Amino acid sequence: MTTTNKKVLITGITGLVGSVLKEGLKSEFDVTGIDLRDSKDVQTLVADSTNLDEIVPAFEGVDTVIDLASEPSNFSPWNVIYDNNLKCTYNAFEASKMAGVRRVIFASSNHATGNYENDSPYREIVAGQYEKLTPGSFDLVNTDMPIRPDGPYGIGKAFGEATGRYFADEQGLSVMCLRIGTLNVESRPMNLRQFATLLTHGDLVRLVKACINGPDSIRFGIYYGVSNNKWRFWDISNSQREIGYQPKDNAETWRK
Fold first, then answer.
1. For residue range 178-201, what is the model confidence (pLDDT) as tens digits?
2. Where would you tag: which of 109, 110, 172, 251 has the fewest CB atoms within 10 A of its CB?
3. Domains in the chain: how many in total?
């Protein structure tokens, strides 16, 4: 199957991440969407992802689902995560299974492991205190390390990763979870922490394309979504090895 034949469904397509991916993917893939409002320039089912029956029709004939539908703020209280994000996430996997989708790319978050930033040397890096540190001289946070959510939003993303594992093991889906770093409108670091955590728009698209085209033999994987930043403290070696992700941007480009 060539990439031009692959139908890619983006849930939450009108959000920031969805908009970036829509623009970056639509020239190579048949992109469609689901959201509470119409994305205008690609076919979009206007529906509430907390309602499984409403969204199921959009999954028919889809090769890859990119699941972004959720309240995106990491400051969201538990009641919002419980009522919205957990339901949206589970429904995306369930609808994918029902429709025979090949692969689900779940938008997880660095907040699923955010409390590692309370530990040294990550604490110092986040604060821009580099004086006693050398890039490459410290252990990176990798996907084999236990989850450490830093709030309800991170708990919801950990739930999504667990849900993806279940659907991979028991329902036959190929699932990739992306622990997305800092993706902002500006596509550049806006504070000290973001010199380590930035994921540019271009590198997001490169990462997701690598996931879409990754080997069918991958049944489940977790990958950090971050650019090739000098002070990056998340390990991307598994994504480089397994799916060929090669980030091109470095936050230091914007260091004054």
1. 999 999 999 999 999 999 999 999
2. 172
3. 1
